[in-house]
Design brief:
The chain has twelve helices and 27 strands. The strands form five sheets. Strands 21, 22, 23, 24, 25, 26 and 27 form a seven-stranded antiparallel sheet that branches. It has a six-stranded antiparallel β-barrel with strand order 1-2-3-6-5-4. It has a six-stranded antiparallel barrel with strand order 7-8-9-12-11-10. The protein is elongated and about 75 Å long. The N terminus is likely disordered. It catalyses: Acts on substrates that are at least partially unfolded. The cleavage site P1 residue is normally between a pair of hydrophobic residues, such as Val-|-Val.
């Protein structure tokens, strides 16, 4: 029996040890060092502080109505009946038989007050072409608004209302300080429901969704729907860090992918619209494109970075400074240009009239130049006024075939067939082999080869000579500058077979 008693004591000790282990061990599948639980943020106080500054915008516009009388067989007894009915009951401007008949179209959006005097920010597309704009506040006060400035390039508009008392306002914060995963709050007017609050995080930054030349959107999973456009995206400090502008959604509703214009991008534009009623962006007169690995190899660059100049505006700041097509801008006014889309934003934000230093690569070597920044809007107006003078077409030359391309000198007949402008000079592409490297890069009949390896060409023989020289140098690809019928340029790197 002593052995039995000893066994019993050991059994009790074993159970106690198992219980101790059970208390100390984490649940199945959990980490041994599980961090303390983190609750969702309480945003009620933030919302209370800012919601009176959020407004709901409704607009009306007159648009041409597409309507017509029912299609009836000629001579039908109903034809005369319907015609008389529509003329009698359609009313002035509403007759379906009138090709200029109009109807009133309404739209809804959101916005926010940035100045107690009645200055409101929203999206340009919310108020674009509107005949009347009304702003409704959280206390249901409804005021008529007027547009004091708009900018389609980043989709911003600034409105003004006349209120009989100072309005609740919020301030634009610093979106550059946002971190991935940071909590943000969207408030707006989705589907016309009025003050709606949604919570999410910053999913990504610097998103390019091809909405404009200065895309660098904040992506968020805070629910954003139709009607949220122009509304604020708040930080937990109650500062506006973004302006809700777009969503990706097959259904039209939120699927957790929304985009906001960063406050850092919007702030200078808002100030310009308030002060001048228009934007005043910097401009240096270059057309640029992305540097791919193949283009980098064709330009003898070590790695793909910077903004490749595809064309230079005649007598523009860059042209006066000596920059030309094929140069790659890698720094602008001391700021690195890591990729193409960095350059338009930094140039646009540069004060007009400032002399800046540009670092660029030419022939694989870095050089620098001083450029005087001009005004974009003035350049756009001038470009619209300028009309190109006709150029004499070169003498015709027998077509040739290079890189799977059927080439010919530009003649009047080819210009007419492909509607190529007189200002475009080079070698015409008249055919493309479907399985050729050129076809893979998107070259098409009607385009014009302007340069091969940064040397101008005027005939198929010129193209062939340049290609032969590059092959002797051991180049794996050939860099071609191609123009479309309107003269817009881009570089293409084609395998040198």
């Amino acid at each position: 029996m002593p052995s039995t008693a000893r066994a019993s004591r050991l059994l009790r000790a074993g159970f106690a040890a198992m219980l101790a282990v059970a208390v100390l061990l984490p649940p199945l599948g959990a980490s041994a060092q599980q961090p303390a639980s983190r609750e969702l943020p309480d945003v009620a106080d933030v919302v209370d502080k800012v919601i009176d500054a959020v407004v709901y915008i409704s607009t009306t516009a007159r648009v041409e109505a597409k309507g017509q009388m029912p299609q009836l067989p000629p001579g039908s007894p109903f034809e005369e009946f319907f015609e008389e009915f529509f003329k009698k009951h359609g009313g002035e401007g509403n007759n379906p038989l009138d090709p200029h008949r109009q109807r009133r179209q309404t739209s809804l959006g959101s916005g926010f007050v940035i100045d107690p005097s009645g200055i409101i920010v929203t999206n340009n597309h919310v108020v674009e072409e509107a005949d009347e704009i009304f702003v409704t506040f959280n206390d249901t006060t409804r005021l008529k608004a007027e547009v004091i400035g708009r900018d389609s390039k980043i989709d911003i508009a600034v409105l003004k209302v006349k209120a009989d008392k100072p309005l609740k306002a919020v301030k634009l914060g610093d979106s550059d300080k946002l971190r991935l995963g940071e909590w943000v709050i969207a408030i707006g007017n989705p589907f016309g429901l009025g003050g709606t609050v949604t919570l999410g995080i910053v999913s990504a930054r610097n998103r390019d969704i091809s909405a404009g030349p200065y895309d660098n959107f904040i992506q968020t999973d805070a629910a954003i729907n139709r009607g949220n456009s122009g509304g604020p995206l708040f930080s937990l400090k109650g500062e506006v860090v973004g302006i809700n502008t777009a969503i990706i959604s097959p259904s039209g509703g939120s699927i957790g992918i929304g985009f906001s214009v960063p406050s850092a991008t919007a702030s200078p534009v808002v100030e310009q619209l308030r002060n001048f009623g228009e934007t005043r962006r910097g401009w240096i007169g270059v057309r640029i494109q992305q540097v791919t690995d193949e283009i980098a190899e064709g330009l003898a660059m070590g790695k793909a970075n910077g903004a490749l100049i595809a064309g230079v505006t005649d007598n523009g700041p860059a042209a006066k400074a000596g920059l030309k097509a094929g140069d790659v801008i890698v720094r602008f006014d001391g700021r690195d240009v890591k990729e193409m889309r960095d350059l338009p934003r930094v140039v646009a934000a540069t004060p007009i009239g400032k002399s800046v230093e540009i670092a660029f690569l030419r022939g694989g070597k870095e050089q620098s130049a001083k450029v005087m920044v001009d005004r974009l809007e003035e350049a756009e107006k001038q470009a619209a006024l300028d009309k190109p003078a006709p150029q004499q077409a070169p003498a015709a030359e027998q077509p040739g075939k290079v890189l799977g391309l059927e080439l010919s000198t530009l003649t009047d007949e080819l210009r007419k067939r492909f509607k190529i402008k007189d200002t475009v000079k080079g070698v015409a592409v008249t055919g493309v082999d479907r399985d050729s490297p050129a076809s893979e890069k998107g070259l098409q009949p009607g385009q014009v080869i302007v340069e091969v390896a940064q040397e101008q060409v005027a005939s198929p023989a010129d193209v062939q000579r340049r290609l032969d020289a590059l092959k002797k140098e051991g180049r794996k690809s050939v860099l071609i500058l191609v123009a479309n019928a309107d003269g817009e340029l881009r570089f293409v790197a084609v395998a040198a077979r």
